[in-house]
Write a structure and sequence with these properties.
Blueprint: H1 2-21, H2 27-30, H3 41-69, H4 74-94, H5 99-114, H6 120-132, H7 136-149, H8 154-167, H9 171-184, H10 188-207, E1 221-222, E2 225-226
Antiparallel strand pairs: 1-2
Helix pairs in contact: 1-6, 1-8, 3-4, 4-5, 5-6, 6-7, 6-8, 7-8, 8-9, 9-10
InterPro entries: TPR-like_helical_dom_sf
Keywords: Membrane, Transmembrane, Transmembrane helix
Length: about 230
C-alpha cells in the first residue's frame, strides 16, 4: 500500500500544481519545459495512453463481474477501487467526460471495503477520489477519519492540506497539515515537496492575511494528539 500512497500523493500534487500554481512565481520549479513539442512523439504518447485506458476499462469490467459473483471478496474490492482510481487519473488525458464517473466508482468500491476494514490508507485513497470527483464533504470527512486513526500519515496530511487549500481555500489549515507532514518525511524528496508547498501557503497568507478557514483545521487532532476512537 505504501507505493500506491506515494503514487496517489504525486498524482494529486500534479493536479494541485496545474490548478493552483499556474502563473505563480514557483511554477517553474515544478513544471519543466515551455511550449509543447510539435514532433510526433506527443501524438504517439496520446495514442498509447488511449489504448492503455481502453485496456484498463476491459480489466475493470471483468473485475466488476467477479465482484458481483463474489461480493464478500475484500481484496477484489480493493483492487477494483484502485483500478477505477487509476482509470480516473488516466481519463483526465484521454476521456475527460469519464473522469468523475471513474472516481465515483472507486469511492463505491472503497466504501464496501471500509464497512469491515477501517484501513486509514484506504480512507486516504477514498478521500482523494472524493476530492477528484467533487464530493468535498465526503473528502473532508474521510481525511479527518484517516487522521484520527493514523495522525502520523505523511500522505494523509499532505493530501488533506491540498484539499484544504483548493476546495476550502483554507491556506492556514493547509499550512498546518504540511508542516506536520514535513516532520514525518522519510527522504529529502518528500521534505522538499513539503517545503515547496509550505512556501506556497506562506506566500498566499502574506497576500491575504484572512485565513478563511477554521482555527483548528483538523478537529480530529488536538495539539497533535488524536482523539481516541472505538473500532
Amino acid at each position: 500500500m505504501k507505493k500506491k500512497q506515494q503514487r496517489i500523493f504525486a498524482t494529486i500534487l500534479a493536479v494541485f500544481i496545474s490548478v493552483a500554481l499556474i502563473g505563480s512565481a514557483v511554477v517553474g520549479y515544478f513544471v519543466s519545459g515551455g511550449i509543447p513539442s510539435t514532433d510526433s512523439s506527443g501524438s504517439k504518447q496520446t495514442t498509447s495512453a488511449a489504448e492503455n485506458y481502453q485496456a484498463q476499462k476491459v480489466r475493470i469490467e471483468a473485475m466488476t463481474q467477479q465482484a458481483k459473483a463474489d461480493p464478500s471478496n475484500v481484496q477484489l474490492q480493493i483492487t477494483l477501487g484502485n483500478e477505477y482510481y487509476d482509470a480516473g487519473v488516466a481519463a483526465q488525458e484521454v476521456a475527460p467526460t469519464e473522469v468523475q464517473g471513474n472516481f465515483k466508482h472507486a469511492i463505491e468500491a472503497y466504501q464496501i471495503v471500509l464497512k469491515t476494514n477501517k484501513d486509514p490508507n484506504i480512507m486516504v485513497d477514498m478521500a482523494t477520489a472524493a476530492f477528484y470527483s467533487g464530493e468535498d464533504d465526503l473528502a473532508d470527512k474521510t481525511y479527518k477519519e484517516a487522521l484520527i486513526l493514523k495522525p502520523d500519515s505523511y500522505n494523509a496530511l499532505g493530501n488533506y492540506g491540498i484539499f484544504l487549500s483548493q476546495a476550502k481555500k483554507d491556506w492556514a489549515g493547509a499550512l498546518t497539515q504540511w508542516q506536520k507532514a514535513q516532520t514525518l518525511a522519510q527522504n529529502s524528496a518528500d521534505k522538499d515537496r513539503m517545503k515547496s508547498l509550505i512556501s506556497q501557503a506562506e506566500s498566499q497568507l502574506k497576500g491575504n492575511p484572512a485565513t478563511n478557514g477554521l482555527s483548528n483545521p483538523n478537529p480530529a487532532l488536538k495539539n497533535g494528539v488524536a482523539n481516541p476512537v472505538t473500532p
